[in-house]
Amino acid sequence: MPPVASPASLGRLAPLPRAFFARDTVTVARELCGKLLLRRHTARTSPPVVTARIVEVEAYLGERDAASHARRGPTPRAAIMFGPPGHLYVYLIYGMYHCMNFVTEADGVAGAVLIRAAEPLGDLASAGARALSGPGKLCTALGVTLSEKGADLTSDGPVAVVDDGWPPPRIAASPRIGVAYAGRWSRRRLRFYIPGHPAVSGRGEA
DNA sequence: GCCACGATAGTG
DNA sequence: ACTATCGTGGCG
To answer: Cα(A184)–Cα(A206) distance, rounded to whole angstroms?
Structure first.
């Protein structure tokens, strides 16, 4: 793994712009692999910026995708998936875990990318976190909850994404996790990950 | 108003 | 394989 800049300097990199997210969801998902996640904490007790490298994501397409929360249209929970791209969609699952997604596609078109795993860097790594493997664990570690839902990813808000120039050696695809109920959509290869990366959840199979 | 059910993860 | 725990959305 190549050396990375200090967390402080990463915090000065420009967040990925709205145009990055305003594209086809699969394209955005693939390109998010290897990017850096910036979590800004406001509490003085926390470091100002925590960083992690995204190593696993899933694409959730619009209303036609039987595994997507958008499948029932713009309900109160999922309406944000239909809104402008570059915003954070957070939901509570099983009453105890949060999952974080980035809204994609043009305004009016539903789409989102679920962030499933990341490699802790900087202060997080120093704190002893070996991996942020699984969407629930990732949100717990970063302190992302429903109160961050709707945040703008393209400003210097609570969550942002930056490109530090690290090229993923390779990106693999597989069916999505935990969507067996979705019929043929459960078999589509819409999960993207960096094969062999230790932070990938489950078996990071090649 | 009710109630079954998760885009999960830790324990047995 | 079992289950904690609660917001969401389908249904009445």
So the answer is: 23
Nearest protein residue by Cα to C1' of nucleotide C10: A72
Which among A105, A32, A14 has a CA at the least distance from the CA of A68?
A: A105
pLDDT digits (tens, 9 = 90+) for A144-164: 999 999 999 999 899 999 999
A145 touches strand C (CB under 7 A): no
Per-residue pLDDT, averaged over A65-71, amounts to: 98
Which residue ranges form the domains of chain A, and what is each CATH number? 7-193 (3.10.300.10)
pTM of this prediction?
Answer: 0.94
Q: Which residues share a beta bridge with A172? A: A193
Residues with CB under 7 A from strand B: A 58, 60, 67-70, 78, 81, 89, 92-97, 99, 101, 112, 114, 134-138, 176-179, 181, 201
Nearest in space to A51 (alpha carbons), one of A152, A165, A162: A162
